Amino acid sequence: MTSEERPDELMQVGQPPQHAEQTPPGGRPPLELLVELQDLDTAISQLQHRRAALPERQELASLSATLADVGRAAAGIQGSRSELVERQQGLEADISATAARRESLEQRMYAARGTPARDLQAMDEEVRHLRQRREQLEDAELEVMVALEPLDAELASLDARGAELRAQAERARRALGEAEADIDKELAVQLPARELVADALPEELRSRYESLRARLGGTGAARLVGSRCSGCHLELPSMEVDRIRHLPEGTVVTCEQCGRILVPTAPSPARSSA
């Protein structure tokens, strides 16, 4: 079939019939608005991606992760320290009880009169045993105190590291807020502009664009630049390009490669002269 024999309404395989959109009274051509809407959507998506991938956000996440690691390390050491402190307290209680028992026996021995020698000898033996027991307990307590020293030093180091990380995180949080605010200012301009352009589009064209955009990675409309679709970046056959450029102005066509709405742009001067 020749180009003269094609019907006025263009149809692609698997696509609904195409039609020529009428220019709104006092407005701009719908296809011109459509590519502007696509440009705005692309700019908005880029801003939103920038906002989500801000280096300040990544820095803050990294600092938060490191701070969490420091917290877990400190918690582990604190657990070990608590066990040692509990043991030390138990030893101190045993030392105190041993000392009290020894003092009581010594007082009884010094005050004893008429006490059988066998009983005095037993008390003296117990005092000697209590003295040895106290020395053993004090040695054990000293070992605990020695074991506590590196833990206390490490906890102090981790506490200082945590304070430094929290200060860095606070600075990163402020920087992130400022960077987000700058992008939000741009979005505050782009989003209302997008709504104005979208509202000016015919409902059918807008609905079709939104459906394609949702399905095709955020790009529902593409420019036909020379013979290349700016959406899929593939070359169209020269006969197809020629046919599209000779369709009535405003005719809605789709790229046969990717299915996006294809909006012809004016050919370059060099191509026109050729």
The strand order across the widest sheet is 2-1-4-3
Q: How many beta strands in the DSSP annotation? A: 4
Highest-level CATH class of the largest domain: Mainly Alpha
- What integer is the average pLDDT? 86
What ranges have pLDDT less than 50 throughout 5 or more consecutive residues? 1-26, 268-274
Molecular structure report:
- It is a single chain.
- The chain is 69% helix and 5% strand.
- The chain has 274 residues and is mainly α.
- It has a 4-stranded mixed beta sheet with strand order 2-1-4-3.
- Helix 1 runs antiparallel to helix 3 and helix 2 (55-111) packs antiparallel against helix 3.
- The longest helix is centred in the middle third of the chain and has 84 residues, at 117-200.
Notable traits:
274 residues, mainly alpha, Helix Hairpins, 4-stranded mixed beta sheet, 6 helices, disordered N terminus
Précis, in short:
With 274 residues, this protein is mainly α. Helix content is 69%, strand content 5%.
